[in-house]
Amino acid sequence: MTNRLAVFDCDGTLVDSQHSICAAMVRAFEGEKLTAPDRAAILPVIGLSLPLAMARLLPDAEVGYHDHLSESYKLAFQQLRRENAVSEPLYPGIAALIRELDADGWLLGVATGKSDRGLRLCLAHHGIHAHFVTLQTADRHPSKPHPSMLLAAMAEAGTTPESTVMIGDTSFDIDMALSAGTRALGVGWGYHTPQELIGAGAHGVAMDSEELRGHIHASLMRSL
Predict the structure, then answer these.
(1) Which terminus of the chain has fewer Cβ atoms in its 10 Å neighbourhood, N or C?
(2) pTM of whole model > 0.85?
């Protein structure tokens, strides 16, 4: 049987990290004596690589400054971690879903705008790191929606686009999946609305983990 691969986004899909991301963003901007963006401005850019997210939040700044501000954000997030102030809880039912998919023979991966270190710490904290066979991050790839992360995940797992499904909460995830030729599933509990996900071309949008389980298994049937 062909290997089946389910690739998950992290922030907004596996974990609800918005409070920590917003807190680090505010610290980064205020540390540079800039007016910090509000939550409504920050949430839509979660999922992009940091320089691209900064470019959307501060479009009039020079390109080099976006890189500088990205480093300030990383330092702010690291400080939050040292203060034990990072909150990245798993969404309801996600841990059980990951275990069940693994037990059912699915290969699992992550494609995220997080750093290698940030993703590793997040997955280890929740005890689910061992379930994933491929981890792709912004440290080694262009920003979503470029398909690089998903193409690398398929290469590492030995799967094809026809046997791969991408699950995410933003239009960037959906665009990446469609560019890579895979199935694209959205989750309605993250940072883009279900309407945005459907508009981007998602093959389905789940509103809870049980519905997502059904969509993932249905995506395999469509590829047979």
Answers:
(1) N
(2) yes
